[in-house]
Design brief:
six-stranded antiparallel β-sheet; 486 residues; Rossmann fold; alpha/beta; flat; 3 domains; seven-stranded mixed β-sheet
């Protein structure tokens, strides 16, 4: 009996070992998938894989570390710290986790902890890593130990192999020179790097760039930009990622200016930042330079001018006057109307939509797949909850089997179900779009004679509302109402 019990115990231990080995192997696979998704900038997908890896193997320190990094990038700093510390509890010598934790401490303004984290990152690193030295230098800078900060940043500059690291080292050396009162040195570093003096973070969920810190005495400070400002536009172009700002700054020559549209306390305020670093020599204090408002009052045009801007604005404009199936009559003014709408929306004096926010599909461009892609995919990927979307469709419509259809350019009148867009498909596409404010202008006929009529007019003859599913808060449909239009 004792012998059998001993055998059972041994088998149980072996089984548990095999189970743990399988779970650990699966966890490694999940981690690798998570790393791949992260490298492809699919952070939510990466997070899902990595959390599964940790569930399979709670000792997956590498997964815990990357989860912390992703939460940091999502500006969820408490969660970031929790996972990074968990990774370090398992592997106290993981240099990259100490590095990641150091940057989180900086955002939390815990500068002593930041300094300690970067010291540990350097201690456990196999080689001198420039970003560890930059982090250490910044930690010393915050604690006003400027000589220590300078020596670490100079060493980082020597080691830097990328332009990004070189630029970070130079900019931070400019901070230190200003703090020490060496304005000639500060001008050298900051003017060379076109540094305007702001720290920013990208809020990925809201798709907006926020100013987290303004460097005292920098040219952005002199222009009037403040901490917690949201950068709404730069040189009249919308800002949805950091690159939209940094590319403009780096391409602006000394002496030229950059126009910022800032959202502050619910108001849009224009500021002009002049790329002039001479004040580092003179220490002159200047008043903020306020730019003229970017957009003038719209002139009186058709009531398609959008309401006051809250989020971003997007539009899909469709006009079909001729069809691949020659049995479908041509329409006279649809393409002209669509082009006019496009021109009004993108005109700075009227709609002021950025051109890359408006899709124009005319005639042969307005195929079944192109329309679905524009509304169901392009709008879905680019718009957010507080954005406004305009849909304009001018072309034939037709009923079949109690459904109504947009007759696309490549539609076949004998097979509307397979080649045209039904009202259900259109409603489903529009539901995919996150924007809460949506206006649909439908200039189309849904009479039974549409696709074989001879008078070529677009008149409305609808008994049942074909877009009942689409209606809701913030969503409006405007349809043509006069059968005499052509």
């Amino acid at each position: 009996m004792k012998k059998n019990s001993l055998i059972l115990i041994c088998l149980s231990i072996v089984s548990l070992g095999i189970f743990y080995s399988c779970a650990a192997t699966k966890a490694v696979h999940k981690r690798e998938w998570g790393i791949q998704a992260y490298e492809n900038k699919e952070k939510d997908k990466a997070l899902s894989y990595l959390l599964e890896a940790v569930k399979l193997d709670p000792k997956e320190a590498k997964s815990l570390r990357l989860i912390g990094r992703i939460y940091d990038e999502k500006n969820r700093y408490d969660l970031a710290m929790r996972y990074l510390r968990a990774a370090l509890d398992l592997d106290p010598q993981m240099s990259i986790a100490w590095n990641n934790l150091g940057w989180v401490y900086e955002k939390k303004e815990q500068y002593k902890e930041m300094l300690d984290a970067f010291k540990k990152a350097i201690q456990y690193s196999e080689r001198e890593y420039p970003w560890n030295l930059i982090g250490l230098g910044r930690g010393y800078y915050y604690l006003k130990k400027y000589d220590m900060a300078k020596s670490n940043l100079e060493r980082a500059l020597e080691l830097a192999a990328t332009e990004e690291a070189r630029r970070a080292a130079k900019v931070n050396l400019g901070y230190i020179a200003t703090a020490k009162g060496d304005y000639k040195e500060a001008k050298k570093w900051l003017a060379e790097e076109r540094y305007i003096g702001i720290f920013m973070i990208l809020d990925e969920e809201k798709r907006q760039v926020k100013v987290t810190n303004v460097y005292p005495g920098g040219i952005a400070d002199l222009a009037g930009i403040k901490e917690n400002d949201v950068v709404f536009m730069v040189n009249r172009n919308p800002v949805t990622e950091m690159k939209d700002i940094t590319d403009v700054i780096q391409s602006t020559k000394l002496g030229e200016s950059i126009d910022f549209m800032i959202r502050r306390n619910g108001k849009l305020l224009p500021y002009r930042v002049v790329m002039d670093f001479s004040h580092y020599l003179s220490k002159l204090k200047q008043k903020p330079v306020i730019a003229e408002p970017v957009a003038e009052k719209p002139a009186k045009v058709k009531k398609i001018v959008t309401p006051p801007k809250i989020g971003e604005y997007y539009a899909v404009v469709i006009g079909i006057g001729k069809y691949q199936d020659d049995r479908i009559p041509k329409l006279k003014y649809t393409t002209v109307d669509a082009e006019e709408i496009y021109n009004i929306l993108t005109d700075p004096q009227y709609g002021n939509f950025p051109k890359n926010h408006v899709k124009l599909l005319i005639d042969e461009q307005a195929t079944y797949s192109n329309i679905k892609s524009a509304i169901g995919t392009w709008l879905r990927r680019n718009t957010r909850k507080d954005d406004t979307v305009i849909i304009f469709y001018a072309g034939h419509g037709a009923p079949e089997d109690e459904k109504t259809y947009w007759v696309t350019y490549n539609a076949n009148i004998d097979d509307l179900y397979g080649t045209a867009l039904s009202n259900d498909e259109i409603s489903d596409m529009l539901d995919r779009v996150e924007a809460e404010r949506m206006i649909a202008f439908l200039d189309s006929c849904y009479s039974a004679a549409t696709v074989h009529r001879t008078d070529k007019k677009r008149s409305i003859s609808i008994v049942k509302d074909p877009f009942q599913k689409f209606k809701g808060k913030g969503r409006v449909i405007i349809t043509s109402s006069d059968g005499k239009e052509q």
